[in-house]
Amino acid sequence: VHFPGRGGMLSNLFGRPAAHVRAIDGVDLTVRRGEILAVVGESGSGKSTVGRVITKLVQPTGGKLVFDGRDMTSVEGLALRPYRHRVQMIFQDAYQALNPRHTIFDIVAEGVRSLHLVSGHEAIMQRVAKSLAAAGLNAPQDFFARFPHELSGGQRQRVVIAGALAVEPELIVADEPVSMLDVSIRAQILQVLIDLRTQRNMALLFITHDLPVAWSIADRIAVMYLGRIVEIGSADDITFNPKHPYTVALRDATPKVRPMINADPLPGLNGEVPSAARIPTGCRFHPRCPLAMDRCRQEEPPVVDVGPHHQSACWLAGTSQHS
Ligand code: SF4
Ligand code: MG
């Protein structure tokens, strides 16, 4: 997905032109087959919007979405069906995502039926059972006739994952899939996703506000701030060797990671995330950045290489002012 800087705008979901907000801007992301890419950011960073653009839940007014060599940017309606088959989205709130009046069987079978992927009740039953098992629900048949309210939060999220898996996608976009679950369940759900990547060579775009969760699951991490990617690199580099002051602040705010780092912490961040409707001039992080200089208030820093497969958008990139 590619959104040229200062160009692309996203139309508001409800189509009120006056409400246009530039939710993502200058974002250029590639997810490879078999790769887990985490997109990390606070609320308002635009990370969910990236997921919604990729899954075609919102239509951007600029930029480009390419999937497997095909430009999907303006594909709509029935022509989208094959794409809906190949790209699935999992949301944070499994309870919201599941129709309370539908059985687990009907929920998981929905995509298979509407996309006509297999025919005949027997084949659909097999596909549903296989998907529930792959999502980590043992004895899948026992869940067929049950309803969402009869399940635990962890089981419901597994049902959501099973629904996505049932259509055998090549890419899953997962928006905060574990953030509403108990800590004890989180690792199990993450393991399900990691196993799927290994077994099916599936790509996963994993959206989270939680840097340690991103590190635990992803090959690469992209850090977003106010609609831009400020740093991208391997999960280890972003977590243990961040170059952008914002990523450093995220790392320092993580009690488990901090003691593992042999570097001084930066002073804390100033203030709150500004509104996406009022993007600061220059480096959009400057009002909160403890290292901001005059130049940062005027000019937007380009994304530059700071190491192998590691890029950052900061005027201090390449200097050793922070580590
Ligand atoms: Fe901070 Fe300036 Fe770097 Fe932006 S460009 S992150 S304000 S030092
Ligand atoms: Mg969100």
UniProtKB/TrEMBL annotation:
SMART domains in the cross-refs: AAA
Record-level Gene Ontology MF annotations: ATP binding
Superkingdom assignment: Bacteria
This protein's record includes keyword Nucleotide-binding: yes
Alphabetized UniProt keyword annotations: ATP-binding, Nucleotide-binding, Plasmid, Transport
Membrane topology: Peripheral membrane protein
Keyword Electron transport: no
Compartments, as annotated in UniProt: Cell inner membrane
Domain ABC transporter: 8-251
Transmembrane segments: none
Family of this protein: Belongs to the ABC transporter superfamily.
NCBIfam families xrefs: oligo_HPY
Name this polypeptide is given: ABC transporter ATP-binding protein
Organism per entry: Sinorhizobium kummerowiae
Organism taxonomic ancestry: Bacteria, Pseudomonadati, Pseudomonadota, Alphaproteobacteria, Hyphomicrobiales
